[in-house]
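Build the 3D complex.
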Amino acid sequence: MSDQTMNLEEFRKLSREILGSIEKVIDGKREAVELAMTTVFAEGHLLIEDVPGVGKTMLARALAKSIDCTVNRIQFTPDLLPSDITGVSVFNQEEREFRFKPGPVFANIVIGDEINRASPKTQAALLESMEEGQVSVDGRTYPLAKPFTVVATQNPIEMEGTYPLPEAQRDRFMIRISMGYPDDAAELAMLSSRELTSPLERLVPIISISQLATMISTVRAIHVSKAVEKYAVTTCQATRSDRELRLGASPRATLHLVRAAKAKAALAGRDFVIPDDINALAVPVLCHRLISTTRRAGAGSAFQSESVVEIVNRIVAAVPVPLVERESA
Amino acid sequence: MTEFERAPVRALDLRGDLVRTLLLLLALLISLGGLSSILAGFGWWVLCAVLVILILGGGLATRSVLRSNPILARIIGPVVGLVLAAIAIMFRFSAGTAILYFFPTDSTFRLFGKLVRDAGYSITWQSVPATADEGISFLLALGTMALVLIAEISASSLRLPALVGLPMAAIFLVPSATPDGKTSGWFFAASAIAFLALLFHGRLRQLVPAAWIAATAVICGLVVPPFLPSTEATTASSTIGPSVATGVNPIIKLGDDLRSREAKVALSYSTVSGKPEYLRLTEISSFSGQQWGPERPMLDPDNRPVDFPRPPGLVSGVSTTNEVSYIQVDNLLSPWLPVPYPATRITGLTGGWSFVPESFTVASNDSLARSQVYTVQSVVLTPTPEQLLAAGTSVPAELSKYLRLPADAPAVIGETARQVTGGDSSNYEKALALQEFLRSSPFVYSESAPVEDGYDGTGVQIIAKFLEEHRGYCIHFASAMAVMARELGIPSRLIVGFQPGSARNGLDSGRKGYDVTNKDLHAWPELYFSGIGWVRFEPTPSRGSVPDYANQQLAGVPSVTAGSGNSATPNPQTAGRNPELSEGVVSTPWLDTSNPTAWITVGAIGTGLILLIIQPLLVRSIRRKRRFEQIRSGRAGAVLAWTEVQESAEDLGLHLGENLTVREAADHLKLRRGIGTDVGEAIDRIRNQVELAGYGPQHSAVSSASPELVADLRVLLRALRQSSEPAARFQAVLLPKSLLSRIVSQIRRFAW
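Done.
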């Protein structure tokens, strides 16, 4: 992976183009789209949680299609096996040895549709590869492609025969977004645009895989001041001591928060992170990892987390922003 | 650089702490020493010093014991000091009424109440320098404890040594508020040096507020006091409406009252006979020292003024007529009661009044003459010249006190007296000669001449000067005659009171009424004649009335035509009301002399007040100016600019809380009514610079665009002011909230 960085102006231009490309498919969901792009540039994994038919898969595919990279899609079903994801070693009769046949996880962008429908064992196979960036089959380790991003979708309504992701697994996703219903205008526009062909078909890649790598290393080079780091830590720590939360944010959450903030800063054309980036990302980065004390039932669903969103917003509003006060330093 | 991290509370540096405490001790002890201008002796200072040492030492000891927990130590330190000081005060003042010398009982509180009351009397009656008696010491101890605690908390707990200037200034203001009490410049300078040392030991950054506190203290302590009216006048001005105040020493104010532009009614009276009368306030019998004044009377509660004894020295044979006076005091702030001589019975008084047997003056420890309405029964003595002549030169031995002359009396007084009375043999003839000498040319009544020539006031040196200059007012004439009489062996005393005043139009309950104003304040001598007692003379030309027995038409011929009493009746129109008319011919009108003083007084007080009021404004604008200067010169960047924006917004009542990010705060500002797009752009530019400087990479933190930044800052601040209500702007100018919250945040940081 290249350590090359690019000019922030160029970064911004390219990201605008990707945004425009995706918006040809997803109308009026700029916030969700930007968060999705943030995840990709921050080398995180994205969890899209919402009711069926609002374009979760469409967003994932549009994002994948705008980047010229390998994309695999896995439809999760209850009978899906771990090896259906990671791949299997097959005995080659001619060469008289086992040869590894890579599974769909070997791609730059892996779309996991309805991840909660698979058995926990299968889910775990994907999630482990997400965290480690590699797959172990029959004692051999195979590195995954770089960059590597999993975009998983989850349907919170259908509870029958599903296995909601446990907290530990949810923690591996950097950002969780909900699509939400489109507004009137967007829905009307969608009707006319989908009349003839799917707009997804017309999408062409905007950036190459090497450009994506450059953009990712650009994000890595974004400056985070001590003050902002401290602010992120304080915010995450506040969730751990909050009375209304049973489970607070993990240290991994803090890491994800800062990394996502870097990507957000880069998307805004800024070469440093400001507290506002942290604030804006607190809900998408933190909420899916937290469990509130008040409502146990349906933990983890997007609807349950309404109260968690409120709690996170309250915490963000209460944590003092590092004061810009150089003269007393 | 972790510039945003809250500075951790540093572990206490014990050595520095010791030095700071010693400097503070020095500063406080020196400023307390400044009280020596109003308190006599040394004991009170030792008491204060013990308290200071206890409080500061308690704090220091606490901080060194609790050095592992500096925050706790800073909180507990002053508490320990307070407890130690309280124990000391209890031990010193509870006089065994407290259990184990510390836990107060009912009687302790009663005792303390009594001490406070005693202190009140003591302060009222004592002249400067006062003796620090038990009451004053008690008040002093309490005040010291409070001020030192403030100093200790400021310097050691809050680490704001500049604030120590406030209690120090308070100590210096005590003498300034006392008549004749002037803070010694040496004490002031010494404690200022100690204060500065304390500040240098602290951080230099605090020098600016310190300089302002010091400036205020200098103004209050050195410049204003000479112009301040004495305490009496201060008391008077605090009451509603014009009032006449005499204080405990009416002489101090007498000249001012005579020269004052407006006549304020002090009291009114009517007599059964319809004749006017002199009303005495107080007696002065000791003629030593620079400033003569009445002694603090030993008031015996048994000497109720309902039953006076026989006037001293009066034996049968002198014809007396009974007189009843109805006196209504309006607004006379005086612990002395105006009473004719000699009274026999006073009824209708409220409060505790007692008479002084020797002088027949009536005074109170707890009441003022103001608003008293009372009836005085008195006798009018009309000794005949023959009787006075018959008194010869004999003087009873017990009156030697009234013959005592100060050792430094200039010889000219005695020489003049003997020269004037050359051939006279009897005391009466001598007295008449003295009176005639003073009432005739070249002596001229003048209220202003002594002030101009610098011999206003009392004292034997002043009298010598007066005999040379021949110009003065009642004090000079009366004291000259009294001292000359003593030179000739005639017992004499000086009386301060009111001349009869002017007749009021119409009748009051069928009686003729008289109004007495502050311009009727008067002084006259009383001389003692064997067998007759004390007799009034009137040496002041154009003032009051000469009694029949001392009428000058008959000088040297000791016989009085019957019925000539009417000629002695004062003519209120000329004598009482307008003494300055006859005066204006020979010297400058009093208006000219009193005017500049009045203006200087008003100007000085006004300047002082204005300086006090605008002090926050000055501090705030200096801070702002300094910031602008730093930004313009590139020494500071956008972060400082942002601090200024935050503080300016706070001044205007717009709190940009610490939970807001720079961006949120900037958006908040942009939403304000009256902020146009150009200002919005300026805000955005400032915001970007602030974010870059505050959160950006180090190499980009150096701001290059300082002129633009300054311009944008100016635009923003102006727009902020313009978008605010006039009331908020007014407050922002006079009482900037950001200054207050700086102090509060210091406290909070310390308590965190």
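Residues 33 and 45 of chain B are 7 Å apart (CA to CA).
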